[in-house]
Design brief:
The chain is an alpha/beta fold and 323 residues long. It contains ten helices and 13 strands. α1 crosses α7 and α4 packs parallel to α5.
């Protein structure tokens, strides 16, 4: 990709040292944007920013976004045109065990971003929302207008943040976009994280030669999307010509079963033991699938990384990375 340097274009990325955040930072820098990543490193890793740190257009600040005064000062100094807000407590289980921390990192942090954007005249805020806001809705594929029934404090906080952003966009007349991520996978996803997707857990077990475990019959399906596509959607939304508040599913529109996923892994790891199947866990969603048409219609975004290709690249990346 040819780099077009545009030092006048500045984007602040919260959670910039995280899995999705660091890929978003890298893509912005490739496009010649000046980037400031803000991360408290609770779950992010500075190692994810090794490539970014080689760029003179990149800066990093270790700061908790929920500390509103300190964050406001950072935004005031950098004066970005857009904020991509990815910082969050990303563990569903932790949100259940510690709902106060979930509220602080997921709702108060969003309000902190809104306040800073309003005071510093930031024209565009992109928010990392989640398919978790839909809950276990059987009417698939899920559309942006589908009923919202979050099943955890995490999902509830994402929906509450969307409401805050919608109200702020209408009140203060800036653009706000909620990107509702489905099942994101790819390099830098931390298999030790409590919020690791099933793909990173499978990968960890295959790499260690351990038996993969599936809860249920393996027929459960997900809409898996590459982190490269998610980063591209974040950047497109940050440059969006749209006005007001918009919410988009960030998905492929294709359902893939865990058995299909395991088949790809077995091609790469032919000597691994047979899969162990255990009883399905109560509360687990059986099928999840998003409708991608609205993002294509409004922003021209379509996922472009085929699952087999993305998964193979993910496995290769993990094999060459020393953890």
């Amino acid at each position: 990709m040819q780099k077009h340097h545009n030092p006048e274009r500045r984007v602040l990325v919260t959670g910039g040292a995280g899995f999705i955040g660091s890929h978003t930072v890298d893509l912005l820098l490739e496009q010649g944007t000046s980037v400031l990543a803000v991360d408290n490193l609770a779950t992010g890793h500075e190692a994810n920013l090794e490539t970014a740190k080689k760029s003179t257009d990149f800066r990093f600040e270790c700061q908790d976004v929920a500390q509103a005064d300190a964050f406001h000062q950072i935004v005031e100094r950098f004066h970005p045109q857009a904020i991509i807000h990815l910082a969050a407590l990303v563990s569903v289980q932790e949100s259940i065990h510690n709902p106060a921390l979930n509220f602080e990192r997921n709702v108060l942090a969003t309000q902190s971003v809104i306040d800073a954007a309003q005071k510093c005249d930031v024209r565009n805020v992109v928010f990392a929302s989640s398919a978790a806001i839909y809950g276990d809705n059987p009417e698939l594929p899920l559309r942006e207008t589908s009923e919202k029934q979050p099943l955890s404090p995490y999902g509830g906080a994402k929906l509450a943040s969307e409401a805050l952003l919608m109200a702020a966009a209408n009140t203060y007349h800036f653009t706000a976009t909620a990107n509702r991520y489905f099942n994101v996978y790819g390099p830098r996803q931390d298999p030790k994280s409590p919020y690791s997707g099933v793909l990173s857990i499978f990968l960890s077990r295959f790499l260690q030669g351990q038996t993969p475990t599936v809860f249920g019959d393996g027929q459960q399906t997900r809409d898996f999307i590459s982190v490269q596509d998610v980063a591209r959607m974040n950047v497109m939304a940050a440059c969006s010509p749209l006005d007001g508040f918009h919410a988009f599913n960030v998905c492929t529109g294709s359902a893939t079963s865990l058995l299909d996923i395991l088949a790809v892994f077995r091609e790469q790891f032919p000597d691994t033991h047979e899969t162990v199947f255990k009883e399905a866990r109560p509360g687990d969603i059986i099928h999840s699938l998003g409708a991608p048409e609205f993002a294509r219609e409004k922003l021209g975004f379509s996922a472009s990384v085929p699952l087999r290709e993305g998964l193979t690249a993910y496995i290769e990346s993990a094999r060459t990375t020393t953890v």
